[in-house]
Specification:
The protein is α+β, with helices and mostly antiparallel strands. Helices cover 54% and strands 12% of the residues. It folds into two domains: 17-146, no CATH class; 156-236, Glutaredoxin (3-Layer(aba) Sandwich), CATH 3.40.30. The chain is built from eight helices and six strands; from the N terminus they run βαααβαααβαβαββ.
């Protein structure tokens, strides 16, 4: 008897997270088509890919062809993958849009070598991400998020009362900024509690004002906090 496929995260409503396999499926499609465009000389394909990225970024996953194919045809057959922060692949798509758009313009004005180079750059990086999971655009986002946090000096102190920490919180307190659908968040919090830490979680979906206040660029972001609220160590994020 078949069992009904159940998702943890709705792909069209829970837009702040995403099945980690979906971006890799999208990257495989972009990489393959970009490579074909350069090798065959059908450079307008690069423009169509840029247009599709722009539409998906502006109007959502329901208007992203590769996303719909994955969520409607592939995911129900192979199951849901790890749920992760969607800001990283979204930023990677924004970078891809810029490079593909620039490559298309270069081809259109006769700068064929430049257009081909940019097309091959997208193809190489997209296929690398699809095959290995290493996403250059995602890493760019991580670096930028850390730099923004450093500049804002956002983790020198955490106001314990506003995050709901118990008044009796001791020195072994850990504050975890997380999302309820994030696989890494759940696993890390479970590990920390199993190790004996007192963990206070801040749901960035329910408390976006705290995510903005503390400059949370990634989830999970986890810090060790002293009894007076001073951050003593950054454990994740």
């Amino acid at each position: 008897m078949s069992t009904r496929f159940v998702r943890t995260a709705d792909p069209y409503r829970d837009l702040d997270v995403i099945d980690a396999r979906a971006p890799r499926f999208n990257q495989a499609a972009i990489g393959t088509l970009s490579l074909a465009a350069v090798l065959t000389g059908w450079w307008p394909i690069l423009g169509l890919l840029a247009l599709q990225l722009a539409i998906g970024l502006r109007f959502g996953r329901r208007y992203c062809v590769a996303c719909v194919l994955y969520f409607e045809l592939v995911q129900p057959r192979i199951g849901e993958g790890r749920i992760e922060d969607s800001r990283l692949p979204r930023f990677a798509n924004q970078v891809g849009l810029i490079v593909l758009g620039t490559g298309s313009v270069a081809y259109a004005i006769g700068l064929t070598t430049l257009g081909a180079a940019l097309g091959m750059l997208v193809a190489g990086l997209a296929l690398l991400a699809a095959s290995t999971g290493f996403c250059v655009g995602c890493e760019m986002y991580r670096i930028g998020a850390r730099l923004r946090a450093i500049r804002a000096r956002s983790f020198e102190r955490v106001e314990l009362a506003e995050i709901g920490a118990p008044a009796s919180a001791g020195a072994d307190l850990v504050v975890a900024f997380s999302h309820p659908l994030c696989t890494d968040c759940r696993e890390l919090i479970t590990e920390l509690r199993a190790d004996g830490h007192s963990v206070v979680t801040v749901d960035v979906r329910e408390r976006p004002e705290l995510a903005r206040k503390y400059g949370i660029g990634l989830v999970p972001t986890v810090v060790a906090v002293a009894a007076d609220g001073r951050v003593t160590a950054r454990l994740a994020g």
